[in-house]
Amino acid sequence: MSTDYQQAREALGARLRELRFSSPGGRLTGQQLAQRLGWPGSKVSKLENGRQTASPEDLRAWAEATGQPDQYPELAARLAGFESHIRSWRRTLANGFKPLHEGLSAEIERTTEMWVWEESVIAGLLQTPEYARHVIQRYSELRGGANDIEAAVRSRVQRQEWLYRPGRKLHVLMWEAALRSLICPPSVLAAQLDRLTGVVGMEWTPSSWASSFTASVKIVPANGFWVLDDSLVVAEDWHAELWLDDADNIALYSKVWRTLRESAVYGSDAHALINSARRAVPAPVVRPG
Questions:
Q1: Does one domain contain both 8 and 52?
Q2: What are the pLDDT digits (tens) for 30-76?
Q3: What angle do CA 239, 154, 97 make, to 5 degrees?
Q4: Which of 13, 27, 128, 152 could form a disulfide with 48 if both were Cys (CB 3.0 to 4.6 A apart)?
Q5: Among candidates 218, 81, 64, 193, which has minimal Cα distance to 131?
Q6: CATH code of residue 218
Q7: Which residue among 67, 83, 99 closes a domain?
Q8: Which tens digits make up the pLDDT trace of 88-137?
């Protein structure tokens, strides 16, 4: 968890403690407040000490239980401020994959130019429906709590309409691992690579596409991310999705993208790399009838 995020969580906890101390009916102990809320006493302690992230419902209940319901908007604004940057998968997926995809789709709709880096999976805007289905299914199995996979697939595929709108431009870099990872059945990967072959060279695609395993690289090819209009970075980690809108982080990720581009192949070489991966896809096993 980032230092900035933890500091913000601790600051919110300190504010909650202030409300407990300043209750109009008299200062409340942690145990008294927990009893009013029907919570275990440990939850009050964890929230106040920044060891647990409050939900909006927790904050509303806290404000009401301390006799200060008018403080809820301030508490909610504090929570929204730091959760807008680090979005826990556990919390984000509580309502399923579809809202998650729709949230990013709304940001993409407002975007005219994107720079994408993926180290081990085909970029979402270029995925076939079957490939997307298997990727989303794997994340669902890992993180749990989301079973609306088909709705998520539809949302991801609909997002691709952005590619064909006037004035939109996509820059994609992928490491060779993205072309070869069998996150799906071989037949699905083969179809996905055929799609990539078809889109290289289209008007909205860049000249650089992929970096070979054998290419010399200046930084470790890790951590997929998107830069949207030089105004927002969306990056994924195992525990959370990061939305970064400060100038320093945007400049850093843009520099990472440009550095990775130096190791990329272009035009016919990109086609050759994709075709090499396509030929390496395992052939279907034919069983005796």
A1: yes
A2: 999 999 999 998 999 999 998 888 888 999 999 999 999 999 999 98
A3: 25
A4: 13
A5: 193
A6: 3.30.870
A7: 83
A8: 666 666 667 766 667 788 889 889 999 999 999 999 999 999 999 999 99
> What does the mean pLDDT of the chain come to?
85
Distance CA 118, CA 87 (A): 20
Q: How far is 235 from 2, CA to CA, in rounded Å?
A: 14
What are the residues whose beta carbons fall under 8 Å from the beta carbon of 252, sequence distance 6 or more? none
- pLDDT tens string 133-168: 999 999 888 877 567 889 889 988 999 999 888 889
Same domain, 73 and 203: no
143, 241 contact by CB (below 8 A): no
Asked whether residue 286 is domain-assigned, the answer is no
**Do 273 and 179 contact (CB within 8 A), yes or no?**
yes
Which structural domain, as residue segments, surrounds residue 199?
88-280
Encoding tokens for residue 102?
């729709």
CA geometry: angle 276, 282, 287, nearest 5 deg: 155
Q: How far is it, in rounded angstroms, from Cα 140 to Cα 124?
A: 16
Asked if residue 177 and residue 71 are part of one domain, the reply reads no
Q: Residue 51: inside a domain, yes or no?
A: yes
